Amino acid sequence: MSSPATFCAIDFGTSNSAIAIPRADGPGMRLVELEPGHQTMPTAVFYFVEGRHDADGPPRAFGRAAVAAYVEGAEGRLMRSMKSILGSGLIDQTTDVGGGRGVKYADILAGYLKRLRNSALAAGAAAPLNHLVLGRPVFFVDGEPARDAAAQASLEAAAHAVGFNDVHFQFEPIAAAFDYESQISDERIVLVADIGGGTSDFSIVRVGPERMRRLDRRDDILANHGVHIAGTDFDRHIELASILRELGYRSHGPERAGSPAREVPSGVYFDLATWHLINTVYSPGRVSELRAMKSFYGNPVHHQRLMTVIEDHLGHELAARAEGAKIAVSGGGDTEIDLSLVERGLSVPLSEKVAVESLDADINRIVQAGHETVAQAGLKPEQIDALYFTGGSTGLRLLADRISAGFPAAAAVRGDRFASVATGLGLHAARLFTR
User: Whose CA is closest to 235, among 246, 224, 248, 244?
Assistant: First the structure.
């Protein structure tokens, strides 16, 4: 069995990833600082068109640096949500990353894992760092066991390719519940709500002090369900309901003889509020088209502000301000969104009431998914002993309160919103590799 310093645990997430290694000063695990001040790193790679290959491959940036390169308009290609290719036919295909370069999707994934491993070694993990626990969802691919097995095999192959020769997997909802499990003295049924940037996932998990000794916890997952609605959807709705109104969204054109004023075209606003589509509005053809639409606006100030955002490439900054406003009102209260970058002195208020109204439909669908998970397990709401909240979007008070309201007998427990899965995987790795 490995020495205490040669193993780690990786939470390879759709939006963000993290890695845990043994503490050098005693028992237990710690999360590695992957970027200055951050123990999690966006699961993102940017391939630059310019630059030479080195020993690790094509010129690339990872994490926040990758996102920054894309936002700043560097020539190249951004790869995000790499986890979603697992179990698909894309994994063995080659994709164009610019500059006449082609890279296999499997190598993109492996390159990211290598970056995590190198960060752990630089942070004090002793070589050879070759024993690994990797998190995995209950299902990579719903209802297709062969593709699900292929997804795990592809992820395992990528881990082997970068130096991990002993790879084990643990289910992410089990990992998320480990911290809670270590604090209780009896067996309980827990609804784990993992609500991040792209998806809201629910799992019914059986936990307890006797069960935590078992390494195989598959039978303790009683049900799993989710919806592709989460934090980025919330940000989009808030931006449309507040910031983009000041740029003409839902406004009307001038009244013309014999016909009522028409609402201005909304496509550009939806693109500005959708992170991966923002850069599409900066293309020369799109800019010319939007500039020619000035006569469509009853209030020319709206069109002027819109063109300022597009011509100055402010779309990603506005999206970030929408996210910041969401966070500011997430615990209750109101905020003011500074838009002076668009027009001197411009700002827009965001009240909790407006935020709630804009998010209501999405929150209802997420809450419904939680109840559907309980039904799939053959249980009733009153049989749930605890709710365990993890994932960045569970910081939204309204969302957590709505979920909790459906399970009045359950204790609400908050894990680390961004790192509970990685921490739980680390606990499992310590049990597995130090037996």
Answer: 244
Do 148 and 277 have their domain in common? no
Distances (CA, A) of 146 to 61, 133, 179, 227, 343: 34, 22, 32, 22, 55
What's the rounded Cα separation, in Å, for the pair 411 and 260?
Answer: 55
Please list the residues that pair with 16 across neighbouring strands.
42
Q: How many CA atoms lie within 13 A of 290 on its CB side?
A: 26
pLDDT at residue 435 in the model: 67
Residue 260 has what DSSP assignment? P
In a domain, 324, yes or no: yes
pTM: 0.82
Q: Which two structure tokens, joined as six digits, stand for 369? A: 């998914």
Give the residue from 310, 341, 356 where a domain finishes: 356
Give the tens place of pLDDT for each residue, 305-316.
999 999 999 998
Overall average pLDDT of the 180-184 stretch: 85
- Average pLDDT (137-152) is 86
Burial class (CB in 10 A: 0-12, 13-18, 19+), 430: buried
DSSP structure string for 145-201: HHHHHHHHHHHHHHHHHTT--EEEEEEHHHHHHHHHHTT-SS-EEEEEEEE-SS-EE
Number of domains forming the structure of the chain: 2
Instruction: Report pLDDT for 62.
Output: 96
In whole angstroms, give the CA distance from residue 102 to residue 373. Answer: 41
Residue 117 near residue 154, CB atoms below 8 Å: no
Q: How much is the pLDDT for 1?
A: 45
- Name the one residue in this structure whose structure tokens are 């961004």: 418
